[in-house]
Design brief:
Membrane topology (chain A): Peripheral membrane protein
Mean pLDDT of chain A: 91
Strand order of the largest sheet of chain A: 6-7-8-3-9-10-11
Order of helices and strands of chain B: EHEEHEEEHHHEHEHEEHHEE
Shape of chain A: globular
Radius of gyration of chain A: 21 Å
Order of helices and strands of chain A: EEEHEEHEHHHHHEHEHEEHHEH
CATH architecture of the largest domain in chain A: 3-Layer(aba) Sandwich
Family (chain A): Belongs to the ABC transporter superfamily.
CATH class of the largest domain in chain A: Alpha Beta
Largest interface: A-B, 46 and 40 residues
InterPro entries (chain A): AAA+_ATPase (IPR003593), ABC_Ni/Peptide_Import (IPR050388), ABC_transporter-like_ATP-bd (IPR003439), Oligopep_ABC_C (IPR013563), P-loop_NTPase (IPR027417)
Number of helices of chain B: 9
Structural class of chain B: alpha/beta
Radius of gyration of chain B: 21 Å
Organism (chain A): Mycoplana azooxidifex
Number of domains of chain A: 2
Distance between the termini of chain B: 25 Å
Oligomer: heterodimer
Structural class of chain A: alpha/beta
Helix content of chain B: 25-40%
Strand order of the largest sheet of chain B: 6-7-8-3-9-10-12-11
Number of helices of chain A: 12
Strand content of chain B: 15-25%
Helix content of chain A: 25-40%
Subcellular location (chain A): Cell inner membrane
Low-confidence stretches of chain A: none
Largest sheet of chain A: 7 strands, mixed
Number of strands of chain B: 12
Mean pLDDT of chain B: 89
CATH superfamily of the largest domain in chain A: P-loop containing nucleotide triphosphate hydrolases
């Protein structure tokens, strides 16, 4: 049974020009010990999806309008009262933000910040909390951890700060960690180190991780399964190697064709024409159809298509392209 | 003769002294952002400058275009020293964030016309609008774009406008500082194609500054790798990626996430770019380098490589003298 099961999640943001459905009917499962990647371009709803799980909207007028967020042994997070959800945050599900500097308190020493997380959820003396913080810093391979305990966030490099944030996320041994673009602000050699660290912690503790990123390369590095999002919906999902090596939705195919690492120097990159649609008034039918090179008249009719498996697809590999469905009917 | 020639270029930034430092008359501290860079940019090439944050790549570009003075060495354009920004607009720059580099209160057409008027005064006033339209077409924007304000454009369109504005000066060199880093992958491809086309069709010389090795591998003819203010390797693009000679270049290439493969089992390099104030006499990468030996603590001159490039590592495959 899966650890987290999201069903038909709808999250709405209020804006002066109307209600935007940033997440519009998203379903996915995360298994125990799995690293699940959610990818897409800016505004596709990947961040909104993962923030909906813990209702971390940072003051934006957003709400989970409908759907289920079932966490194993805990219940439906979507129906939980704020006070109950506050207990789930950190203890069962931890969140790692993109910018480690804004996630840390600039006026508090590192050791005390980590200790505070521990003391908030269980009884521990200051000395015990400090000892636990030291061990956590060792676990995330912070060099000279004794010295860092008394440092302030601004005294640390970007990579070290992100290690501290990961240490805090691990402090209460959560079952699930949600990491929203955790390496986007980091240099590539440091990104590599942080990705290895996340994977190593998963391997040793069995923690599930949801990794949200715009970078297909990052997903390819450490994720087991993935979902590709476009305009608030999941358009393709499956095991990482199945999706990246044999993408079946035209959007995933187009994203991969636009990457410069994929083609020889002599061939042209193929950009995706146009721009993503408005989420306040999305187009009928498939939301990618207006930009899709393969679009047919029937693509732009009716409700947005759901996920289905196409013939000969690998197990668990689904996409939301009706043209694949048509070929299924013909076969 | 190189079109743009950096010769022993230096740049130091004074670090602010606190009141306490002044009281005890502490000596001013400098951050050495660019250390004696020699770099010859050839006519008609796309030269990539890569490195991680703080390596000095942007500072070098700003010195090249005269936006910042150098503290030593000189920059020659077409054989003549550049002093301050080029008044004829032969060097133009494109910045990372196209929104903050466009005037929000002027239409695109007016902004572009201004540049044409400034740098090509010989062009009759009546011809300017037609020239702006020609340039909009060149960067694949529809004619109506001239009537719009920057806020009405998408990120990719704005970056096209920025490139178009640079072209209005009819430059010989375009310096692009992380021009695609703020863009989504699908839009990034449009801008990369545009830059490649301008180089191929107009022979425009482009200095392309980036931290993205995949983009550089695809776009550039030659690549300079910078680390802590120094160029540590300079090679033809294909040989740089096929046979990197400096261990830092190797580490950068290894760290690039590949969509075709899961993470390699190879040990990554440890640590981060060290404190730029702690000046080491020898190789600045040695503290993180898996191959470091005692000999690395001696000053490292550039070594000529058998591929025709240069690398600042005594272990590189050198030309046998």
């Amino acid at each position: 049974m899966s650890l987290l099961s999201v069903r038909d999640l709808v999250t709405e943001f209020q804006s002066p020009s109307g209600t935007a459905r940033a997440v519009d009917g998203v379903s996915f499962d995360v298994n125990p010990g799995e690293i699940f990647g959610i990818v897409g371009e800016s505004g596709c709803g990947k961040s909104a999806t993962c923030r909906s799980i813990l209702r971390l909207f940072g003051g934006a007028s957003a709400q989970v309008a409908s759907g289920q967020i079932m966490l194993k042994e805990t219940g439906d997070l979507a129906r939980m009262h704020e006070r109950e959800l506050a207990q789930v945050r950190g203890r069962d599900v931890a969140f790692i933000f993109q910018d480690p500097l804004s996630a840390l308190n600039p006026t508090m020493r590192i050791g005390k910040q980590i200790g505070e997380v521990i003391r908030r959820h269980r009884k521990a003396s200051r000395a015990e909390a400090r000892e636990a913080a030291l061990q956590l810093l060792r676990d995330v391979h912070v060099t000279s951890p004794e010295r860092r305990l008394d440092a302030y966030p601004h005294e640390l490099s970007g990579g070290l700060r992100q290690r501290v944030v990961i240490a805090m996320a691990l402090a209460l041994r959560p079952r699930l960690i949600i990491a929203d673009e955790p390496t986007t602000a980091l240099d590539v050699t440091v990104q590599d180190q942080i990705l290895r660290l996340l994977k190593e912690r998963r391997d040793s503790l069995g923690t599930s991780i949801i990794l949200v990123t715009h970078d297909l390369g990052v997903v390819s590095q450490i994720c087991d399964r993935m979902a590709v999002m476009y305009a608030g919906r999941v358009v393709e999902t499956g095991a990482v190697r199945d999706v990246l090596d044999a993408p079946s939705h035209p959007y995933t195919q187009a994203l991969l064709a636009a990457l410069p690492g994929q083609v020889s120097r002599d061939s042209q990159l193929i950009p995706i024409k146009g721009a993503p649609p408005s989420l306040i008034d999305p187009p009928a039918g498939c939301r990618f159809a207006p930009r899709c090179a393969l679009a047919q008249p029937q693509c732009a009719i009716g409700a947005a298509p759901g996920l289905h498996s196409r013939p000969a697809a690998a197990e668990g590999h689904f996409d939301a392209c009706i043209l694949n469905e048509v070929s299924h009917a013909a076969a | 003769m190189p079109l743009l020639d950096f010769q022993k270029v230096e740049r130091r930034f004074p670090v602010k002294r606190s009141f306490g430092d002044l009281l005890v008359n502490r000596k001013p501290v400098y951050l050495h952002a660019v250390r004696g860079v020699d770099l010859a940019v050839r006519q008609g090439e796309i030269l990539g400058i890569v490195g991680e944050s703080g390596c000095g790549k942007s500072t070098l570009a700003r010195i090249g275009i005269g936006l910042q003075p150098s503290d030593g060495g000189r920059v020659l354009f077409d054989g003549h020293p550049l002093e301050g920004p080029d008044r004829e607009g032969r060097l133009q720059m494109v910045f990372q964030d196209p929104y903050s580099s466009l005037n929000p209160r002027m239409t695109i057409g007016a902004q572009l016309e201004e540049v044409v008027a400034r740098y090509r005064p010989q062009m009759p006033r009546g011809d300017r609008q037609a020239e702006v339209q020609r340039i909009l077409a060149e960067v694949s924007l529809v004619p109506e774009t001239a009537l719009k304000f920057p806020h009405a454009l998408s990120g990719g369109q704005r970056q096209r406008v920025s490139i178009g504005r640079a072209l209005c000066a009819d430059p010989q060199v375009l310096i692009a500082d992380e021009p695609v880093s703020a863009l989504d992958a699908s839009v990034q491809a449009q801008i990369i194609n545009l830059l490649k086309g301008l180089n191929r069709d107009k022979g425009l010389t482009i200095i392309f500054i980036s931290h993205d090795m995949n983009v550089v591998r695809y776009l550039c003819d030659r690549v300079a790798v910078m680390y802590l203010g120094e160029i540590v390797e300079l090679q033809e693009c294909t040989s740089l990626f096929a046979t990197p000679q400096h261990p830092y270049t190797q580490a950068l290439i290894d760290a690039v996430p590949d969509v075709r493969r899961p993470q390699s089992l190879r040990e990554p390099i440890t640590g981060e770019i060290p404190d730029p104030f702690a000046v080491l006499p020898g190789c600045r990468f040695a503290p993180r380098c898996p191959l470091a030996e005692t000999a690395c603590q001696a000053p490292q001159p550039m070594q000529a490589l058998d591929t025709g490039g240069l690398a600042r590592c005594w272990k590189a495959a050198r030309v046998l003298a």
